[in-house]
Amino acid sequence: MAPFDRIVIIFNPQSTGNAPQLAEELREDLGRRLPTVPLDLRPTRYAGHARELARAAAGTGRPLLVSVSGDGGYNEVVDGVMQAGNDRAVCAVRAAGNANDHRRVTRRRPLADAIVAGDVHRIDLLRLTVGSGPAAGVRYAHSYIGVGLTPVVAVDLERGGKGSWREIVSVVRAFSRFRPFPIRLENGRKRNIDSLVFANIAEMAKYATLSAAGRPDDGRFEVITQRRTGKLRVLGTAVRAATRGLGPQPSATHYAFTTLAPMPLQLDGELLELEADTLVAVDIAPGALATIS
Length: 293
Hints:
alpha+beta
């Protein structure tokens, strides 16, 4: 018996990349190779729609949900599946974005081959809790959560456009304007941070190697901290990550802090704005997601 009873392919028809073409090619390929499995293409219509489509599709049975997207679009699909609460739902991503960090790091074989083989395994997720009490919001990330310089650069990339020189100009512009963010840790200590990344995979942003041993199935996440050190040292850290890698990093299953000023947060490729005096907690969700890669 196949590990799934239907396949739902979610994609953005307005993607600046080739997501519509890739989605159709995948549907045709799987249709030939899995003729008895129902296939459905689900285009998104607005921001956040992929999360809604995934939550609805994952509510019953044993569906496979394939996101034809980059890391941000896949984040929506994964988050929607987790909201559905059906642990028999399976997720996969067909890379069609800019960085595609998750697919690049976790890829085992061509996606269609893995789907036909029914190669399902489980990985950890990062669970983000913003706020406290009944009003707290929960989101999930498949690869990383970042505050500080990482989302600041991401915001500027969205404004300046992606691709070659535009990316370079956007990064330089964001770096020149960046200021450290203040936070308060659970033990009451205050810190000014340049960058704080919680990583479920060892690489990000196409070129940066964050840790020497991070894996998405080890029950922990790596904590990569850059305290306020000055822009030249931040730049040096970025260069080291892109060339030699940052080496071994501390790992954890829980990390919490309170924002002391408004700041952006990046959840895989998705961007959120945090208000001041907001409690933020990151926890590992071991083996939370069934996936094919």
